[in-house]
Amino acid sequence: MVSTLSTYRSVIALTGPLLPVVSFFARLPVAMSQFGSVLLVSETSGSLATAGIVGGTLSAGQVVFGPVLGRLADRHGQRPVVLAAAAVNALATAALVAGALTGLATPALAAVGAVAGASVPLIGPLARTRSVALAHRAKAGEGVVGAVHSLEGTLDEVSFVFGPALVGLAALVLHPAVALGGAAALVAVFGTAYALHPTAAVTAAGPARTRAEGVRAPRQPRVVHAVRASLALQGAMFGACQAGIAALTARLGVPGQAGIVYAAMGVVSAGVGLALGALPARFGLRLRWRVATGAALVLSVPLLFTGTLWPLYAVVTVLGAAYAPHLITAFALTERVVAPSRLAESMAFAASSLVAGQAVALAVSGRLAEAHGPAGAFAVAVGAAALCLTIALVTRVPAARTPAPAGEPGGVPLKAFIPAQRAGSVEGRGAPGSTAGYAGR
Hints:
The chain is mainly alpha-helical. Helix content is 74%, strand content 0%.
């Protein structure tokens, strides 16, 4: 326990205490926007179909343009990209609220939703990229890098629990427009604060980050594509569970319990994700990937036989323990094997894969739940878990970090990848000239 706290203190020493707080509040609008848009449009138009179209275009915009924003951040630095994206997203979200309240036609409303999705600032993937860059610049060991992924994964999980909860509470007490308007305000304030934080200097544009004309981008290793497929399947599990939980609670006459059940799963997932930082280095990423996906399969099977409320709570809550380890491991694998000059793009692509899988599975599982009951939706979750495990078992995972090619623009010197004990520094401390030491700013 003491060792784990010490490791996380090393992470906070790199980022400063303010950055995780700012990045958390900047992530909330991502978790609030889709749910909030569906509630708002269904309330104002009286049509669930219209709400589904707008929510779908919002997700599609994020999936398609997320990697583009990541690539721009790799080439030009995070600060200008996040500042521009946050401004556009805040305006687009506010326009979506205004359009819904004034009865804007469905095609126009869907177009505004697409712009809102396309301009999501991707704080989660970019915060991972920034924190990892800080750790490597300070020559921190793999334990600290692993703790960075655990902390970022936990912040994601907590945001995706509290985001929808805030939307539901605001919609219940006031109006869905307040919830979505709040998301616009959050992204404007905290997205801007994240962009302007001093740690943005570690991802600033420069000669090393600008790809020379005629130099081809390094090819992504095969494991990257396998991880993206695994994350898409993880998203499919999320979507299928959402549909199944909603269908079962509606059948039991307690539809209001659906959000609470799903939140319980998220809380457990976040707690386990934070505890993952305590795992010793000998539990490598390949083993973690296989154990996490295997646990997801074993723990999801009971969903097929769950027909009452309290067993649903129990099964879904326990299942949450497998989710964060898989997500954290998948992002850690991405960070380990991709070229540093493509890290933000790769992180964004991974996050977009998760969103795409969730959106597709939610649509498919909803139809299956209508035709075959909750078990039809839950079967999609079990099938996705089985495919996740298969991918983890057949994919070859490098045993060690792959250094950047010698001539690659934006590459990080090999010594930055050497664990701190070998590099001659103390793990978690900043080397002279590093960007560590932002604590207190």
